[in-house]
Amino acid sequence: MENTPHSSYTAVEDAFQCIVQTLTDAQDCIQNKWEDFKKKRANLEQKMNEYNLAANGHKRVSLCVGGKNFDTTEETLLKETDTFFWAMLRSGQWQPDKQDGRDFIDRSPK
Question: Beta strands of 1-110 (E only): which ranges?
Fold first, then answer.
């Protein structure tokens, strides 16, 4: 094989293309690992939130619904998401009535 300027140029170009492909593959691998990391982080955060809810969920909740008193726990009220009680308790704004410790809900208890 003859060593001409053209063959040297081709060898450099081939080496350059190989390096570009290696870097592209590495970038794809890093991107995939980053996406996996973000999914695992989101799952972990969700599990931590669920754990914190469960750990703190034994707190007693007293409600007065349409004049009828009910006692339960936060854990019970937080079992179902996207409900009135879940939103009320997760908002961090819920405070029971200072007089009798019950939260009044103006609804029929049936």
Answer: 60-65, 68-73, 103-105
